[in-house]
Amino acid sequence: MKLRIQRFLTHLRGRRNFSENTLRAYRADLGGFESFWAKSGGGEPSTLSRHKVRGYLAAVQSSSLKRASVLRKIASLRSFIRFLREEGELRGDPFLGLRGPKREARLPRFLTEKEADDLIEGGASGAPLASRDRAILELLYSTGARRSELSRLNIADVDFLGGILRLFGKGSRERLVPGKLLGQILQDGGVLGQHHPVVGA
Question: Is residue 17 located within the same domain as residue 68?
Answer without folding.
Answer: yes
